[in-house]
Every structure is written in structure tokens, then in C-alpha cells.
Amino acid sequence: MKKIMFVLLMAFLNVSMFSCTPTTIPGNGTAGQEEPPCCGGDSPIPPPPPGGGG
């Protein structure tokens, strides 16, 4: 009886883990929401200021 319950538990865990597929957003066909670019991602990142330490 314990083996049957263990097999059923493993089957349930496998089904629940691998059955979910991402849903697509109508219109653009990508899965999920994409992050918007941060801080106006068009400009390059400026170099750091020169180190004044010693």
C-alpha cells in the first residue's frame, strides 16, 4: 500500500511540475511580461569618475 501511495505521489508531483506552460499574450506572441528598459536604456553607461585615492 505504501508503494502505491508513493508512486501516486510521485506521478502527481511530476504532472504538477511539468504540465504548466506559459501563456502567450495575444498580439505579440511572447510569453509573460517583458521588463521595460531601465533609465532610458538608449544612452550608454558613463565611465566611472577617476579614482582620487592613494
Question: What's the total number of strands?
Answer: 0
Task: Output the structural class.
Answer: mainly alpha
The amount of helix comes to: 25-40%
Largest sheet: none
* Helical run tally: 1
Distance between the termini: 73 Å
Given as residue ranges, the uncertain stretches (5+ residues, pLDDT < 50) are none
User: Oligomeric form of this entry?
Assistant: single chain
Shape: elongated
Strand content: under 5%
What is the element string, with H for helices and E for strands? H
Integer-rounded radius of gyration: 25 Å
Indicate the mean pLDDT.
74
Describe the structure.
Helix content is 31%, strand content 0%. It has one helix and no strands. It has one helix at residues 2-18. The protein is elongated and about 75 Å long.
Topology:
Blueprint lengths: L1 H17 L36
Structural descriptors:
54 residues; mainly alpha; 1 helix
Characterize this entry briefly.
This protein is mostly helical.
